[in-house]
């Protein structure tokens, strides 16, 4: 093929020989001004993607090289799924490099939420994960909210160095970079492929910042504990918030159960009456029932009334965990699905989720 050509959408090297391997593009595609691989073409035009042969080990290998660089790292997390989108081992990847922490998708939080309180919460949560960011901010890449402020932070913190944008899949890294390109880049700069499907960016994509430094979009590490990996691409759209989340409040008594579609369940096991506030995609069906009827309800309606997923057999069984919730407002987090804030403790709850979906509790974000 002569000179190396890379896909402007996902960053992999273009090849024209094997349709089953990553980077394939038909020979005619090489004649275009902006070359993208067949996988990115299908993502862009049909929102579908074939299987890829790039493993999480390949992604981790790339990130492990970052601590040898002299650069600014911009870590983007999904503020609606902070814990599910936290990059495991970030302090190790960062080394001595400064980290700017950006909470994306702030437009999905209820408008009543005070941003400064969320930013302070992010700082405390990051510290619990062993990271002290040099700056922390909230943005919305899709609505372009606070993008100029984020760009100014990057420019002041990088001090002439390269910039690496890092994070797990689906946090909006490529959307963020495309927004930067739209506002500050050259008109001919190619756009990066974006999708709700995990693992869109396959290799590092570099964009010049000035004559000596570049900005890199790195591949997203897949967090296998997120609900995204238990549903189809169509169902993923349903459980991924697309607009401002409308909290749903339930006043529950001990002996009552709350279902979050067929992917999450909270049993109020013991304690005085309390409020259970659900923060999740507005498209996720919720259902309240008596705990004594919950197992039978799931057996009868998983995949129908309790859907997604439509095929409950793919879940491989539900795992139960018991939690003692203190008197302070506490979030029960289902990775990639949302969270339930308990107000009015102390209470004891039992959670059920597919074996593999991460369930944790934390200080309430709101």
UniProtKB/TrEMBL annotation:
It comes from Alkalicoccus urumqiensis (Bacillus urumqiensis). This is Ribosome biogenesis GTPase YqeH. Pfam families: MMR_HSR1, YqeH-like_C. GO terms for molecular function: GTP binding. NCBIfam families: GTPase_YqeH. Coiled coil: none annotated. Residues 60-224 form the CP-type G domain.
């Amino acid at each position: 093929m002569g000179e190396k050509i890379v896909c402007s959408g996902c960053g992999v090297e273009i090849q024209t020989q094997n349709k089953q391997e990553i980077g394939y593009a038909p020979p005619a595609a090489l004649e275009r001004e902006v070359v993208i691989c067949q996988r990115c073409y299908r993502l862009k035009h049909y929102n579908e993607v074939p299987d890829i042969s790039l493993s999480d080990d390949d992604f981790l290998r790339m990130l492990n090289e970052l601590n040898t660089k002299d650069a600014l790292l911009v870590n983007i997390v999904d503020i609606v799924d902070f814990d599910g989108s936290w990059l495991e081992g970030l302090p190790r990847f960062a080394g001595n490099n400064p980290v700017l922490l950006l909470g994306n998708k702030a437009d999905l939080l209820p408008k009543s939420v005070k941003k400064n309180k969320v930013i302070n919460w992010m700082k405390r949560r990051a510290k619990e994960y062993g990271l002290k960011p040099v700056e922390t901010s909230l943005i919305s890449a899709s609505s372009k909210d606070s993008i100029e402020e984020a760009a100014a932070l990057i420019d002041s913190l990088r001090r002439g160095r390269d910039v690496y944008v890092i994070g797990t899949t689906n946090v909006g890294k490529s959307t963020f970079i495309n927004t930067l390109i739209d506002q500050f880049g050259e008109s001919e700069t190619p756009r990066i492929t974006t999708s709700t499907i995990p693992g869109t960016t396959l290799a590092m994509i570099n964009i010049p910042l000035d004559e000596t430094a570049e900005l890199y979009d790195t591949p997203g590490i897949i967090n296998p504990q997120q609900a995204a990996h238990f549903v189809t691409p169509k169902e993923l759209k349903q459980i991924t918030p697309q607009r401002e989340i409308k909290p749903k409040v339930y006043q529950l008594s001990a002996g009552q159960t709350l279902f979050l579609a067929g992917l999450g369940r909270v049993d109020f096991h013991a304690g005085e009456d309390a409020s259970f506030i659900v923060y999740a995609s507005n498209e996720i069906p919720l259902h309240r029932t008596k705990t004594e009827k919950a197992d039978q309800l799931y057996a009868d309606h998983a995949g129908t009334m309790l859907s997604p997923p439509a095929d409950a057999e793919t879940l491989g069984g539900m795992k139960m965990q018991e939690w003692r919730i203190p008197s302070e407002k506490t979030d029960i987090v289902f990775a990639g699905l949302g969270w339930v804030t308990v107000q009015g403790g102390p209470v004891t709850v039992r959670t059920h989720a597919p074996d593999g979906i991460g369930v944790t509790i934390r200080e309430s974000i709101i």
